[in-house]
Design brief:
α2 (about 35-45) packs across α3. This protein is extended. The protein has four helices and no strands. The longest helix is centred in the middle third of the chain and has 28 residues, at about 45-75. By secondary structure, it is mainly α. It has helices at about 20-30, 35-45, 45-75, 80-100.
């Protein structure tokens, strides 16, 4: 069977815009907390609620930028533990998994 060309690659589908990607990442990071927004806004008020929401959005964008830089530094990485292993060996991998899953 011949190797597939770039034209047949499943990655050649429609592209997402920057806004669509950011929206998807924000919705994933907010998760079920999004259902609690009305109650939080009712307690905090509109202005503090919007300020906190914007801070969460900026933090999300910044963390996704950091994760992208990490994965670009270690192209063969699949999990964050792989990045820890590339940095500090098995001790790094174990440390990353302890931090993530504790």
């Amino acid at each position: 069977m011949p190797a597939s060309s770039d034209a047949e690659s499943p990655l050649q589908g429609p592209k997402c815009s920057w806004g669509q990607t950011t929206s998807a990442l924000l919705s994933l990071q907010l998760g079920w907390g999004l259902w609690l927004f009305p109650a939080a806004y009712a307690r905090l008020g509109w202005l503090p609620g919007i300020v906190i929401t914007l801070l969460m959005a900026l933090t999300s964008v910044y963390s996704s930028t950091l994760f992208t830089r990490l994965y670009m530094a270690v192209p063969e990485a699949v999990l964050l533990g792989d990045i820890g292993k590339a940095a500090r060996g098995e001790v790094g991998r174990t440390l990353v998994y302890c931090v993530i899953y504790s």
